[in-house]
């Protein structure tokens, strides 16, 4: 099982030390109710070889390379172990000659977001709903001092720890298996990311308030979410599913979303990017057994989902506390 004690030691002498009042007990409770496959997934990390990477690139990609390439047999064994952690949704990763071609080209999103951010150098960053942690590594590539991701999904935690092991056990990034609603209001993060989360929340204003409570005064929120066309009063509330997802509750227009952020106390709110999700950005690969975007769109009209709603369009909104 994954040991969180090194993380506790890390934050004990930092401005995150107050988290130790609640976090260890929360994670003990979490361990008692984990997914039935968690033990199997955690063992995969133990089975991964201890490999030393002489070259690590987190600036242009998430890549680790050794001076001594793996033999084909070693590479196939590494692929075998990593495929025990499928589906791999966010990536890609290039690790010791193995290309994990994930469902999402998350580097596309990062390239849209990065030019607009306050510089991440030396910042303490929180990534809410971080998945397997792809963007966390890219944040380190931009010079962030500490990156903490939170996501309650056990598979994502094990994927993150597998990648960490293949990146020379880099401890500057950590994934904690909690939801944002379980975090105490720390109010210390320089930058908080929430990408691909808001539309999964039954109460979006509560989510925005929770994000704000984690920021220091002047800190920056990076919010990326589904949006629809419309004015300040436009919100799509899917009757059942949206793009075959049953846990989509509210999809606002950009103007409506800006209004929500202002109502929850943010200022300097601005939309910096709007993009329609392409079939190149989200697609089936050999690292994903499930359906993907092509299956979620109307085969006769790809501007609509199979339910008849507007096809996925995503906006990036920045705001400050």
UniProtKB/TrEMBL annotation:
CDD domains per UniProt: AdoMet_MTases (cd02440)
Listed EC numbers: 2.5.1.-
Keyword vocabulary terms for this entry: Methyltransferase, Transferase, tRNA processing
Molecular function in Gene Ontology: methyltransferase activity; transferase activity, transferring alkyl or aryl (other than methyl) groups
Residues that coordinate or bind carboxy-S-adenosyl-L-methionine: 90, 104, 109, 129, 151-153, 180-181, 195, 199, 314
InterPro entries referenced in this protein's UniProt entry, alphabetically: CmoB, Mo5U34_MeTrfas-like, SAM-dependent_MTases_sf
Domain of life according to the entry: Bacteria
Substrates-to-products reaction catalysed: carboxy-S-adenosyl-L-methionine + 5-hydroxyuridine(34) in tRNA = 5-carboxymethoxyuridine(34) in tRNA + S-adenosyl-L-homocysteine + H(+)
Single biological process term from Gene Ontology: tRNA wobble uridine modification
Subunit structure: Homotetramer.
PANTHER family listed in its UniProt record: METHYLTRANSFERASE, TRNA U34 CARBOXYMETHYLTRANSFERASE
UniProt family annotation: Belongs to the class I-like SAM-binding methyltransferase superfamily. CmoB family.
HAMAP family linked: tRNA_carboxymethyltr_CmoB (MF_01590)
NCBIfam families given in the database record: PRK15068.1 (NF011650), tRNA 5-methoxyuridine(34)/uridine 5-oxyacetic acid(34) synthase CmoB (TIGR00452)
Function: Catalyzes carboxymethyl transfer from carboxy-S-adenosyl-L-methionine (Cx-SAM) to 5-hydroxyuridine (ho5U) to form 5-carboxymethoxyuridine (cmo5U) at position 34 in tRNAs.
Listed name of the protein: tRNA U34 carboxymethyltransferase
Gene source species: Mesocricetibacter intestinalis
